[in-house]
Amino acid sequence: MARKKLNIGLIGYGFMGRAHSNAYAQVNKFFDLGYEPVLKAACARKEDKLKPFAENWGWESMESDWRKLIARDDIDVVDISVPNNLHRDIAVAAAQAGKMILCEKPLAMNAAEGLEMTEAVEKAGVANMVWFNYRRVPAISLAKQLIDEGRLGRIFHYRAKYLQDWTINENVPLGGQTLWRLDIDAAGSGVTGDLLAHSIDTAIWLIGGVDKVCGMTETFVKERELQDQPGVRMPVGIDDACAFLAKFKNGALSTFESTRYARGRKNQNTFEVNGEHGSLYFDLEDAHQLQYYDNRLDSHVHGWQTILVTDFEHPYMNKYWVPGCTIGYEHTFINALADFIKGLDTGVPVRPNFRDALETQRVCDAALKSAKTEKWEKVQG
Ligand code: SOE
Predict the structure, then answer these.
(1) Rounded to whole angstroms, how far apart are CA atoms 298 and 310?
(2) Which residues share a beta bridge with 38?
């Protein structure tokens, strides 16, 4: 099929800038799509940092001011891959300029900002997506398929954990280019927005919306040195750990837990769903497997089965290699981008869009509020 060009303007050059650049470069190699992303312009304030990045990934041009990038006629899509405190202004301006928007998670610093962004893209009628990439892990997409097929029946429980360990050392500094996730003014929150937003997005996608939450948070290291100003110490404002109970609108009872203080856990993202007819369990450390318990089988063969999610019948897998050959973290971004472009091809907009991400943001806000009030809090909206 003759492909139309889709000119991308990427803002940011960090971890996610790399993951997205790779997706733009790879997507047409694996997926048959009506559009071909063109790495038109990469944008960041620091030219010395941006130049090697742009050259390495093949970006055609550079900008140092995101407003100039948005003003360019040759940019169709603005990709927001910068710290969370910049999402709102860029997204609102890009929507007003009629650009399509791909935004990193979490959507915003808080739900009030997220609502502004959502209203801006909806008013402008521009295509929009938030990069909740874990939906595009084939095993998680398969979990969605099994639940939608009714294999679990009524859902009673959802249990999510998202664990890391990289901030235990109190000498890890705060803020700056690489450690903005520890800076409350840049990130808006700690593990709640950074990690639990992923878990909440997956949960809402799999089993539906959250009604109310009751949470607690802790900041274990109270003060850190600033990365950009050695010797200067600042109080830490983010949540290092967050755990909350949630009651879903469908009545399911659920727990969510996240921390950056689980020694040995680098990026462990797990969930278990318990339903009337069966259960599912997923662990990102075994990303190509989905555990499934089917209670409708004859009782003498009851037991957890491990589905190796690499067959042609499994979500996304017929685009890659042959059964038994796994794909990796970077492919979740390629899959997400393919879904975005498929939305342009078919006219059926991709999910999660800004409004979906706003729902997740509202759960984050409610969990953080509950940790302060020490009460159950309703999820707004
Ligand atoms: C934090 O360490 C982080 O990079 C998150 O920001 C990502 O969203 C997560 O997928 C991996 O961990």
Answers:
(1) 26
(2) 7
Pocket test for ligand 1, best of 164, 195, 261 (most atoms within 8 A of CB): 195
Q: CATH 3.30.360.10 residue ranges in the chain?
A: 135-378
Q: How far is the CA of 194 from the centre of ligand 1 (A)?
A: 6
Q: Convert the pLDDT of each residue in 161-212 to its tens digit.
A: 999 999 999 999 999 888 999 999 999 999 999 999 999 999 999 999 999 9
Closest by Cα among 193, 217, 87, 197 to 135 = 197
The model's pTM is 0.98
pLDDT in tens, 247-294: 999 999 999 999 999 999 999 999 999 999 999 999 999 999 999 999
Q: 178 CB under 6 A from ligand 1?
A: no
State how far the Cα of 202 lies from the Cα of 324, in Å rounded to an integer: 25
| Arch. (CATH architecture) of 4-133 | 3-Layer(aba) Sandwich (3.40)
The CATH 3.40.50.720 domain(s) of the chain lie at 4-133
Angle among Cα 213, 359, 132 to the nearest 5 degrees reads: 110
Question: What is the Å distance from ligand 1's center to 5 Cα?
Answer: 30
Report the atom number in ligand 1 closest to the C-alpha of 198: 8
Task: Please state which architecture CATH assigns to domain 135-378.
Answer: 2-Layer Sandwich (3.30)
Per DSSP, the three-state class of 168 is coil
